[in-house]
Structures are given as C-alpha cells and as structure tokens.
TrEMBL record:
This is Sensor protein torS. Keywords: Membrane, Transferase, Transmembrane, Transmembrane helix. It is an enzyme of class 2 (transferase). It comes from Serratia fonticola. GO terms for molecular function: protein histidine kinase activity. The keyword Transmembrane helix applies.
C-alpha cells in the first residue's frame, strides 16, 4: 500500500461510473413510464 491516493482515485472512479449508470437507467425507466402513460 504505497499509493493510497491511487486506490482512492480508483474507488472514486468506480463509484462515479456505477452512479452514472444507475442514474441513467433510472432516468430512462422514469422517462419510459412517463411516455407510456
């Protein structure tokens, strides 16, 4: 564990990507429901 900042950056990037994917899927699902109504 010589570079804690590197692992921290990796975790941040991973969480950001997961959050973006979840947000986009939620937005798409809500948009689909709103349009299908």
């Amino acid at each position: 564990m010589g570079h804690p900042s590197l692992t921290r950056r990796l975790w941040l990037a991973f969480l950001l990507m997961a959050g973006l994917t979840l947000l986009s899927s939620l937005i798409g699902w809500f948009g689909f429901r709103f349009i299908a109504r």
